[in-house]
Amino acid sequence: MKKLVLAISLLSFAASTAFADTILDRQEYMKERGKLVKQMGQMAKGETDFDAAAVLTALKGLEANAEKFDAEAMFPEGSLEGDTTASPKIWEDFSGFKAAEEKYLDAVKGAVAAPPGDLDALKATMGTIGGECGACHKAYRIKKS
Amino acid sequence: MAWLKKLAGTAAVVVAGCAVAGWVLSAPVKLDRDTLAQLGPGDAAKGERIFNAGGCTSCHAKPGAKDDERLQLGGGLELKTAFGTFVAPNISQDENDGIGAWSIADFANAMLKGVGPSGENLYPAFPYPSYARMKPSDVADLYVFMQTLPAVSGKAPPHKLGFPFNIRRGVGLWKRLYLSDKPVIEFAAGTPDVVLAGRYLVEGPGHCGECHTPRDAGGGSRKGEWLAGAVAAEGEGIIPNITTGPGGIEDWSAADIASYLETGFTPDFDTVGGAMVDVQENMARLTPDDRAAIAAYLKAIPPHPNGYPARK
């Protein structure tokens, strides 16, 4: 009986840690997006001066980041245990999840192709890209304690 | 055996008395004449602001509606809760399937008293415990604005609730415990108007407390942990603490809060997620002054630690 309890505890421990690295990796990956968006966001908020070249660099950074996205590798089945805000909906609707990421990539590519030339255009670009961030977070992320 | 008869007789009287008291106490209570008189004619332009502050579209537009579709309030969104599944009704101007045939008094009784046009108690999944704090004139403005929106045919399916929650009369007792038109947070004299304006938006039409405040065993808001965050009443996960207590938004400035409501970006440039996406999109339609007022209020309320249990 003790062995059984031990085995069950070990199994549940394994379930919660098996994807710990995967979860940390994808969080780092998402934080990279945050840092790049922040560079533009601080300009949009007026905290830093508008700098068209720096905006384009940040947008290209977002594009390079977005192209590295690999849904199957980053969100393997079962990687919703542990310290993650991934929603089970990701795996219930994996194609929808991937489509949301595609839409985000398209928005970033569109911005790189036609980068904003002034502050108002930057705000519009932030709105378009941020809208895709929010669309995916609305459906596929849940806050946990 | 006379004593037994006497006991049975007493018990019967007590039971009957309780039944009568319960029936009386659970009766729907409508607005009084004075409040109805304060409604006034209503102003559609002002009503649009209330409509956005209330975020009516979040639940009453068809799920996934975009752009103009969001003004088609056919309902149908399911809220899966511990009490059962509530289905947002059609509140479009359709006379049969929506609220097109409702008088302004019908509308005000629903918004401020949680009473439907047939005199039935409405379930507080419709957040009238917050709307009860609204000014009657704002309710009238909203009524007139909603008359400008399209009629959508088709009734939403009924709620799916188990016993005893399927007994509407019980909601009358619930209201005796939890329904109040008084503000939640009392501020000292001399509190800036911007904070009071924010209180009205947050505690009234914005109904932020319905999700962000934990509930007690009876399903009412724990006002001592106002906006401290809560286990999601609907769906999974938690709703964040938006007080300045530990785990909350202490490190957000008022400008950060207003900016988040406008753009959806947090101070770290993470973005809004979950059910808050629709809320934020509606808040983005308010004026900068209204968003600043909400922010000022959130910075002024008592701080609390998280109103949900820590992760095990």
TrEMBL record, chain A:
SUPFAM superfamilies attached to this UniProt entry: Cytochromes (SSF47175)
Keyword set, alphabetical order: Electron transport, Heme, Iron, Metal-binding, Signal, Transport
GO biological process, alphabetically ordered: electron transport chain
Any Pfam family matching the protein: Cytochrom_C_2
Superkingdom of origin organism: Bacteria
Gene3D superfamilies: Cytochrome c/b562
Post-translational modification note: Binds 1 heme group per subunit.
UniProt keyword annotation of Heme present: yes
GO cellular component: periplasmic space
TM annotation in the entry: none
Signal peptide boundaries: 1-20
Residues reported to bind heme c: 133, 136-137
Name listed for the protein in its UniProt record: Cytochrome C556
From TrEMBL, chain B:
Record's keyword terms, sorted: Heme, Iron, Metal-binding
GO molecular function: electron transfer activity; heme binding; metal ion binding
Gene3D superfamilies: Cytochrome c-like domain
PROSITE patterns found in the cross-reference section: CYTC, PROKAR_LIPOPROTEIN
Keyword Methyltransferase attributed: no
Domain Cytochrome c stretches: 42-150, 193-302
Any Pfam family matching the protein: Cytochrom_C
PANTHER family in the cross-refs: ALCOHOL DEHYDROGENASE CYTOCHROME C SUBUNIT (PTHR35008:SF8), BLL4482 PROTEIN-RELATED (PTHR35008)
Protein name per Swiss-Prot or TrEMBL: Cytochrome C
